[in-house]
Design a protein that fits this description.
It is a single chain. The protein is an alpha+beta fold and 206 residues long. It has 2 domains: 84 residues, no CATH class; 106 residues, Alpha-Beta Plaits (2-Layer Sandwich). The chain is built from 7 helices and 9 strands, in the order H-E-E-H-E-E-H-E-H-E-E-E-H-H-E-H. The longest helix has 14 residues. The radius of gyration is 19 Å and the shape is elongated. It starts with a helix and ends with a helix. Bound molecules: zinc ion. The site of zinc ion has 8 residues, from helix 5.
Length: 206
């Protein structure tokens, strides 16, 4: 590996995107036909307008991780919608490795595809909503590194640049970044316009 690192292209930019803070939950539902697959997908598209949504599995077993720092009742509403509209559903009010293991084992023997989740560059744990660092190169495609919530919290610094460098230093790939390269944070665009219809749609569930 160290030989690979020494031949890595020169880094010309660092983009640091810290994970959003919020409560997390994993929602799983059985889809008995294509119509139910579509209905579940559409429900989480709506949820995606007001919260972060990451698909964990698609097919007979539909699973989504959701992260929200907004309305506390959101998870309850999604749970209610799944329970009343589909024959089998599960809710885990966290996003741990055990949950992902459960999803993988449920998908193993049925027609369902498990998504590849970003793995932490330090501890290897899967995290659907990781802190990301993009390493930009002049003559090569940029490379994304992901870090789980626990590692990001452990290495947190007040200064975003220092936090990003601390994560890269601990990265198992031993990413060497010259101090002359500044750490930038991508500009945020939130589509506030879309939030209202999604809230209204979900409000019907209460
Ligand atoms: Zn980690």
């Amino acid at each position: 590996m160290s030989q690979l690192v020494s031949r890595s292209p020169e880094i010309t930019g660092i983009l640091y995107s810290p994970a959003q803070v919020g409560r997390r939950a994993v929602f799983l539902a059985e889809a008995r036909n294509k119509k139910e697959v579509r209905q579940i997908r559409e429900l989480f598209e709506v949820v995606g307008q007001i919260a972060d949504v990451a698909p964990l599995s698609q097919g007979v077993v539909m699973t989504y991780a959701v992260q929200s720092d907004g309305e506390p009742a959101l998870f309850g509403k999604i749970e209610w919608l799944l329970k009343t509209q589909f024959s089998f559903s599960l809710v885990e009010r966290n996003c741990s490795d055990v949950t992902f293991q459960l999803v993988r084992s449920l998908c193993k023997d049925v027609d369902a595809e498990v998504a590849d989740l970003p793995e932490c560059g330090i501890c290897g744990v899967a995290d659907p909503f990781p802190t990301r660092i993009t390493l930009q190169h002049e003559d090569a495609p940029s490379v994304d590194r992901s870090y789980c919530a626990r590692c990001a919290a452990r290495l947190a610094e007040d200064d975003p640049g220092a936090a990003a460098r601390a994560l890269l230093r601990q990265d198992r790939r031993r990413v060497r970044v010259p101090t002359s390269i500044p750490v930038e944070m991508p500009a945020f665009t939130t589509d506030v316009e879309q939030a209202e219809p999604a809230e209204l749609l979900l409000a019907r569930a209460s």
